[in-house]
Specification:
The protein is of the alpha/beta class and 293 residues long. It folds into three domains: 2-60, OB fold (Dihydrolipoamide Acetyltransferase, E2P), CATH 2.40.50.140; 66-214, 3-Layer(aba) Sandwich (Rossmann fold), CATH 3.40.50; 228-292, Orthogonal Bundle (Ribonucleotide Reductase Protein R1, domain 1). 28% of the residues lie in helices and 24% in strands. It contains nine helices and 13 strands. It has helices at residues 30-34, 91-103, 122-132, 147-154, 169-176, 228-231, 239-242, 259-265, 271-292, and strands at 2-11, 14-19, 22-28, 44-49, 54-60, 77-83, 107-113, 135-138, 158-162, 187-188, 193-194, 202-205, 211-214. Strand 7 (107-113), helix 3 and strand 8 form a beta-alpha-beta unit. It starts with a strand and ends with a helix.
Length: 293
């Protein structure tokens, strides 16, 4: 019997597919194993049920979008979690996540967790990203503060919950949906970073509806395959000025007549975000040089 479902986990050569309230451990039909198409978490598939626990994947339906890392497809939105401290927020890492989400056409939300430890510089960061147009939430998984709105957001489609280790992603999910009972980890005192408590990408069904991809923590995240000119378009606050620059292909560095630099000097663009843009631009330039060798 052919049944439609969603791939919720890929592990050890098996594909775990949820249809309704049941999960089947499936293998791929031979044409998928020898072909170029990979079946990924989030794929909508059609499979043959062999018995009450296993099946064979017959069809993989077209994808709406795909994230490179975490490797998830058909994502509705991304919730990017940082901590107010332990570990302290890393705006450059946050911008990497935001760029990847925008490049994939995925709406992004920002969560600053652990407000029970204090907010400090996070209030300024939250205001800055809110001004750009991102929805920002302050939460405490420990005290279950600010989790109601997060629960509402997560009930819609597939959500990627991403962020570095130790920020409390699993704790937040436990606060939002206690039935998950996810394992949480302590913070390493030496480095101030978290121990990995999530080892692989897995879609978790939530009691309010929707799936959330609980993902391994990241300390370094690559960039999508964009060139230097395209990068500025992934910064929403740059967009109103890009086409007002004097030169087509302006990289917004030292070029004369650069509307982005004028907006920066006028305080319309955050100097921190601009510095992160330059760092990422330099990273892309290095990647392009390697390609030419």
């Amino acid at each position: 019997m052919l049944t439609q479902g969603v791939v919720v986990k890929v592990y050890g050569g098996f594909y775990y597919i949820r249809a309704g309230n049941a999960v089947w451990e499936c293998v791929l039909r031979g044409r998928f194993r020898i072909g170029q198409q990979r079946v990924l978490v989030g794929d909508n598939v059609e499979f043959i049920i062999q018995n009450e626990r296993s099946g064979i994947v017959e069809t993989v339906f077209p994808r709406r979008n795909a994230l490179l890392r975490p490797r998830v497809v058909n994502v509705e939105q991304a919730v990017i979690v940082l901590a107010t401290r332990n570990p302290y927020p890393n705006p450059l890492l946050l911008d990497r996540f935001l760029i990847q989400a925008k490049d994939a056409g995925i709406r992004a939300y920002i969560v600053f967790n652990k407000i029970d430890l204090g907010t400090g510089e996070v209030q300024e960061l939250a205001a800055m990203y809110g001004k750009i147009g991102y929805s920002v939430f302050l939460t405490s998984a420990k005290e279950k503060t600010g989790t109601d709105k997060l629960r509402e957001i997560l009930s819609n489609g597939i959500t990627v919950l991403a962020g570095p280790s130790g920020v409390g992603k699993s704790s937040l999910l436990n606060a939002v949906s206690p039935g998950l009972m996810l394992k949480t980890g302590a913070i390493s005192g030496k480095a101030g970073t978290g121990r990995h408590t999530t080892r692989h990408v897995e879609l978790l069904p939530l009691s309010e509806g929707g799936f959330v991809a609980d993902t391994p923590g990241f300390s370094k995240l690559g960039l999508p395959e964009v060139d230097r000119v395209e990068l500025a378009g992934l910064f929403p606050e740059f967009e109103p000025y890009i086409y007002a620059c004097q030169f087509t292909g302006c990289l917004h560095m030292q070029e004369p007549g650069c509307a982005v630099k004028e907006a920066l000097q006028a305080g319309e663009i955050s100097s921190m975000r601009y510095k992160n843009y330059l760092r990422l631009l330099n990273e892309i330039a290095g990647r392009e040089r390697r390609y030419l060798k």
